Amino acid sequence: MRFRRLWLLKTVISCRVASLEVARCSAADWVIFGPKQMCESSTHQLPGIEDRMPESISLTCRDGYSLSGQLWLPIGDSCGSVVISSATGVLARYYARYADFLREQGYTVLTYDYRGIGGSRPASLRGVHIRWRDWGDLDFDAAVRWMRQRDPDGPLVAVGHSIGGFLPGFAAAATEVDRFLSVGAQYAYWRDYAAPQRLRMFAKWHLCMPAMAALFGYFPGRSLGWLEDLPAGVAKEWAYRRARLEQSYPEHERADVLQRFAAINAPILAVSVSDDEYGTPAAIARGLAYYRNAQVQQVQLSPPALGMERVGHFDLFRERHRDGFWKASLGWIEEGRNSWSDEAQPAVCAAC
């Protein structure tokens, strides 16, 4: 036990040193997760949002857990509903500007924090039993049910970023969604990371993160400037994810997991960017392979095509993409039209 604690302490020190190497992080990582004040900013501190504040709501999950949500209401009649699901360790308010943009187009938009994150975080993360899977099975499920109860007949679109674009497959209520738009969606299997960054990312997320979660009882990502704090169960599920998703769960649960994903037959537009070190073509295709009965279109965009030098995993939801990606995404949200049809690719995962 003594040697194990010493090893964990050494690993934590190494992780802390690595966290100071800001130059090795992308600009988007630093803007989103870097200075502590960025993590502590709130929606009402975003210039231009003050006069259009969302309504705060509470979502009750099947297990009784309460989630914090924000409802963005359009002026006048709504032309449909949109649920936005976050990336791992990213607060719902990061998507506030995009949600407000969709509200301006006449949509009712729901953003929400997963259990253990932001407004849905308990007083302490130590000792809580929260899995990554719960964010889809329970949290996304609750968001969809809430929106469907509010508007039973209108169109409902799910927009998911990173893990938020993959997790819907866990939710029984996902069959209530009319269309899915995923952005950089994958489940972080380490061999799919971009080759130049793979070793660094493996050390960061698959060595440092689980070691710190074991030592502290949760992953203190906020202190490191990496992302929000994560429940230990989420951190470990990410760190130890296998090539086949279902193999990460007990054998008696695997068939149900596969059936949940297979039950979705709605159209999916999976958008990625060529310089995304997480959402590589292999990673995107690996995740999409589980949606075997869905109508899938896969698109990879390049930074130059978006008028940018660098986009990466996080940038598409920043306001500088309002006239590019944001407006183009409306084609899919409004009528299921792929605005990037010239960039379409087959969704094939040979490694799966």
What does the model show?
The chain has 352 residues and is α/β, with parallel strands linked by helices. It has a single domain, classed as Alpha/Beta hydrolase fold, catalytic domain (Rossmann fold). The chain contains eleven helices and eleven strands. The protein has helices at residues 2-19, 27-33, 36-40, 96-104, 132-150, 198-216, 221-224, 232-239, 251-262, 281-288, 322-335, and strands at residues 55-60, 66-72, 81-85, 108-112, 156-161, 179-183, 218-219, 230-231, 267-273, 295-301, 344-345. Strands 1-2-4-3-5-6-9-10-11 form a nine-stranded mixed β-sheet, with helices on both faces. Strand 9, helix 10 (281-288) and strand 10 (295-301) form a beta-alpha-beta unit. The longest helix is centred in the middle third of the chain and has 19 residues, at 132-150.
Helix and strand topology:
Elements: H1 2-19, H2 27-33, H3 36-40, E1 55-60, E2 66-72, E3 81-85, H4 96-104, E4 108-112, H5 132-150, E5 156-161, E6 179-183, H6 198-216, E7 218-219, H7 221-224, E8 230-231, H8 232-239, H9 251-262, E9 267-273, H10 281-288, E10 295-301, H11 322-335, E11 344-345
Parallel strand pairs: 3-4, 3-5, 5-6, 6-9, 9-10
Antiparallel strand pairs: 1-2, 2-4, 7-8, 10-11
- The CATH architecture comes to 3-Layer(aba) Sandwich
Low-confidence stretches: 17-45, 347-352
Mean pLDDT: 88
For CATH, the homologous superfamily is named as Alpha/Beta hydrolase fold, catalytic domain
Strand content: 15-25%
Global Rg = 19 Å
Give the neighbour order of strands across the main sheet: 1-2-4-3-5-6-9-10-11
The helix content is 25-40%
State the end-to-end distance. 38 Å
Write down the overall geometry: globular
Biggest β-sheet description = 9 strands, mixed
- How many runs of DSSP E, i.e. beta strands? 11
Number of helices: 11
The tally of structural domains comes to 1
